[in-house]
Structure prediction request, 720 residues.
Amino acid sequence: MTEPPLTLTSPLEAVPGVDRKLASALFALGISNVAKLIWHLPFRHEKEQGETTIAQLEPQAIGTTRAEVTSCRPVNFGRKRFEAVLHDGTDRLELVWFNQTYLAKRIHPGMRLLVTGKVSDRGSAGNARPQMVNPRWQVLGETEPDTARADRLRPVYPASERAKSWQIAKAVESALPSALPLIEDHLPGDYRRSRELPTLAEAYRMLHAPQDEQEVREGRRRLAFDELLLLQLAVFMRRAARDAHERALPLAWSEQLDQRIRSRFPFELTPSQDQVVRTIADDLQRDRPANRLVQGDVGSGKTVVAAYAMLQAAASGHQSVMLAPTELLAEQHAQSLTKMLAGSKVSIALLTGSLGEPERASIERRLASGEIDIAVGTHAVLTDRVRFESLAVAVIDEQHRFGVEQRAKIRAKSAGADSTLWPHVLVMTATPIPRTLAMTVFGDLDVCAIQGLPPGRAGVRTIHAHPQDRADVYAQVRACVERGEQAYVVVPAIDAGQQEPMLIASTNQSTDDVPPPRPMRDVKTVAEELTTGWLEGARIAVLHGRLKRDSRERIMDRFRKGKIDVLIATTVIEVGVDVPNATAMVVEDADRFGLAQLHQLRGRIGRGDKPGVCLLVSDPPTDTARERIAAMTRTTDGFELAELDLQLRGPGDLFDTKQDGAAPLRVADLFADRELLELARRDAQRWIERSPRLGSAGEAVLRRRVLKTHGERFQLGDVG
Ligand code: ADP
Ligand code: MG
Prediction:
């Protein structure tokens, strides 16, 4: 019986040498057919030398050599092992087999062996001796086998217990000859050659079966470039579609309006806020929807900039919405806007998940009729029921992961007469986003930044305290309360039964860096301790996400009014909470929080003219934890901390894989491949200027792949 020829969609069982068991193990790795198998790339290559003398063995490569055993011995203390030494006249080679002491019966001095294994250096540089651990071996007899073979690079694949790297390598090797000719290249030949790129099929071959290192680099470069180019093409298609089709309500602006809005603010804008406000005011006057990211460190004053934009909308008789990441923050924004607009005609409503049904229905009705000018809420409240009469501005607070999809969702909220109109969108974030990332995931956003902090900040001193010094820590809190100031105590868990959260999983975290599980400090226990102990007599309240909205609002309100001295809270207060009279913060178990989180938390104090103190209570269980705490005491610069966070944890969490579907970049590295990214960006821009829809016959495959990879994320469905 002859097998049907392999195609890219053939199941894995059709690949010669792959049985049901291996196929199911591969399936568990997400490899379901031939195309997916070819797509499963090695993450590194091991050099495999042809046979050499001992002296020619290359460290770190897989070497093969033949030589005489001059001595050997089993070692029965410590880790049981069998050691042997080979000599071939050029040098000596040490061999170690762990847990294979039976070899003492098989290998003897005087024998000749053919051995293959990874070569490592043992001993100090200069007199380093080559060594192999657990090499494969074969005793040589009268006739010695011929192993003449050129050097080669052996691919090492992401693998599992049931599908080992070498098994994957064999499957790939057997599928490759039939699969490669079937791979269609989406890049036109002329273009490809002008960028000195191999064909797509050739690139896959170069990674799965490279002749040399140069080929690995070349193949990788092609695939990395592809990813970046496809992404940038999607970005520019999105922009082209936006320019061609998207319209927004132009919002009038004048010097008088500017004065009127500013008179509502309790302070003068800083020069940097001023500049950002003007940029945004310009954006909003256009009939193209603004799509802008406003960066500004914790406490830089982003809220007022957002308020300005919303008031510009209200002045033209249109609506705006402000979305916050937590209910607490939404509540606070609603409150400060209400205060700012006291006595004006502008009406504000708070729309959160904990509203009762009648209240909610009433707000929804008044949003749909245009009676409410400004809505403040959480993302969760943007259900299908919510409709605006004429939504002109949407502000997304503290959410750098906000993508095109979410924008489209908000757009759909405007049920106005002309539903083709998009709102102007402003995304506010304290997370510094590296330029390269801003060009990709956020590629269709304009970016601006508020530099520095408003004047008159007395600053925050950060101190690392050991748990045994908690008496001193709370003595400082007590002193703060006695001065008439307020304090936060941040605790990782709500009650004692709470499980330890998963530690930040990260590939660059070594296993010995994972601390043993420890009991977590919790709000209830800490509150009890403090009320009856170090802070006896102070007015203490607790705040966490499990409280009902009413009680939460009541507590925050009393804290804001100074009727509570110390707020013991979980990270619900992490983002945005603004009480200038709060000057002290204790973070219990500080090492359990990420750097970005600690920075945000600390941003809650030192907001007024009195100096703040942040006390991080921790006995750091790992070096990384120690480093994070040390960084916090060293600097208050959000950019510096974000960079360190990136170093310690990798860029992983900047890409929200849940939101973005598959991680958009498999091969390309936004840092290492910066130049490739610039090139892809320039090329994509020109390409889309020439051919905004990638509509020519020669672009069909390219177009299909761009849409398949990024169509959803960039809402390109309507482009063609
Ligand atoms: P964030 O950028 O973290 O959202 P906020 O908008 O909450 O910062 O502002 C932080 C604090 O600074 C608030 O108390 C706010 O009233 C105050 N603030 C903002 N801008 C100014 C300014 N130009 N002058 C004085 N205080 C300001
Ligand atoms: Mg804010």
Remarks:
- The longest helix spans residues 213-245.
- Confidence is low (pLDDT under 50) at residues 500-514, 653-662.
